[in-house]
Specification:
By secondary structure, this protein is an alpha+beta fold. The protein is built from 2 helices and 10 strands; from the N terminus they run βββββαβαββββ. Strand 6, helix 2 and strand 7 form a beta-alpha-beta unit. The protein is globular and about 45 Å long. It has a single domain, classed as 60s Ribosomal Protein L30, Chain: A, CATH 3.30.1330.
């Protein structure tokens, strides 16, 4: 077992086997895990907002689904990952407030997940699995050795996707 590398909020990290990546407390944020199964290079993005084009002065690329995925792919390629082989798993995007609403600014979780999927599609990256939505936070761990994405939530069984 390698090191467990922590990814903060609005942050991204890449690693090689046997290291693993983790991010704590994904609420409406989405954890996007990318993986090259041949080189076993992985990346994990903890994005908070769907779209960087809506915000001025967005110097933090990892805060947004769109620029975060761009940057994750760039860093993974720099480590030796092949862009054409990348696959993805995503988790998070919860609706943390118990209200049904059509107000977009309150549907951040859903919009984050949608934005991540749209961006993956632009890169032709296959989304292998997802665990999104509902109303609870998730802590995730991504293992570069196996490509397993382990999801832990309070009071729920551990889930591997």
């Amino acid at each position: 077992m390698g090191n467990m590398i922590k990814v903060g909020m609005a942050d991204l990290k890449v690693c090689k086997c046997p290291d693993a990546l983790t991010t704590l407390g994904l609420g409406s944020c989405v954890g996007v895990a990318l993986y090259d199964p041949v080189t076993k290079i992985s990346g994990l993005l903890h994005c908070m907002l769907p779209d960087s084009t809506q915000i001025r002065n967005n110097s933090n690329l990892a805060k947004f689904a769109d620029t975060g995925i761009d940057e994750l792919i760039r860093q993974m390629a720099a480590l030796g990952a092949n862009k054409n082989r990348l696959v993805a798993k995503i988790a998070g995007g919860a609706q943390m407030f118990a209200m049904t609403t059509t107000n977009d600014s309150l549907r951040v979780g859903e919009r984050n997940a949608e934005a991540a999927k749209k961006k993956l599609k632009e890169y032709n990256i296959r989304l292998l699995a997802e665990d999104c939505g509902l109303n609870y936070g998730r802590t995730v761990e991504f293992y570069s050795e196996t490509g397993d994405y382990v999801i832990k939530s309070v009071g729920k069984p551990v889930k591997t996707i």
